[in-house]
Specification:
alpha/beta, four-stranded parallel β-sheet, 9 helices, globular
């Protein structure tokens, strides 16, 4: 079962402002990257379900987070159907993120009171997701729509909470554009966590870049 309620997850997303995205087939590598994000101040991580036996990796990673990283909230992304969402929730996923809007996933998550964030690309999709109880909508792919889209959505729907994912950069300029447009938080993937040519991760860089992003967002909100 989830360790955190959907409202608690939504609040942490809002407070920290970033949700790192990451997948790796090796459990030990995943633990090190998760720890680097945690040490940098992140309190959420979206484990993207993009490989064979990804659910096994997530299960081990979530057990590690519960035992060793107090307050760390793990969720799962790239979920495409209710069956997969249910499987990950059985493994303790605290939130479910999808690349598209699917009502079957909404129903499965709402039944367990787990936060779900569907990938939406139109105002109609966003409105329908909110009607089904969505707290924070994922704007995907974020770089295709841009901050101007968010600003347009917030006009008629100022209550809408948006998390752009895809193309978000950990820079002052990019984060400023998104947060001034009114986003609640941002999803950061390969531009925050990226392996080098040999497949190795610079853990110190991930930690420092995570910390820098959180500081930038905090400054923008002050």
């Amino acid at each position: 079962m989830a360790q955190f309620t959907r409202i608690e997850v939504a609040e942490v997303m809002k407070q920290t402002g970033i949700v790192p995205l990451f997948y790796h087939k090796d459990v030990e590598v995943s633990k090190k990257v998760l720890k680097a994000c945690y040490d940098g101040g992140a309190r959420l991580l979206e484990f993207t379900s993009r490989g064979d036996f990804a659910f096994e990796i997530f299960g081990a990673l979530n057990k590690y987070a519960i035992a060793e990283l107090p307050g760390m909230i793990l969720g799962v992304g790239s979920v495409t159907d209710a069956a997969a969402a249910s499987l990950y929730m059985q493994l303790g996923a605290n939130f479910i993120v999808t690349p598209v809007f699917r009502e079957d996933i909404a129903i499965a998550c709402n039944r367990r009171k787990v936060l779900w964030s569907p990938g939406c690309g139109t105002l109609t999709e966003i409105a329908r997701a909110e009607e089904l109880g969505c707290e924070i909508v994922k704007l995907f792919p974020g770089d295709i729509y841009g901050p101007e889209f968010v600003n347009g959505i917030k006009g008629p729907q100022p209550w809408t909470s948006i998390m752009p994912t895809g193309g978000v950069s950990p820079t002052v300029e990019n984060l400023t554009a998104w947060f001034e447009a009114g986003v609640t938080c941002v999803g950061l993937g390969s531009k925050l966590i990226k392996a080098d040519a040999d497949g190795n991760f610079d853990l110190e860089k991930i930690e420092s870049l995570t910390r820098k992003c959180i500081e930038i967002i905090s400054d923008l909100r002050s």
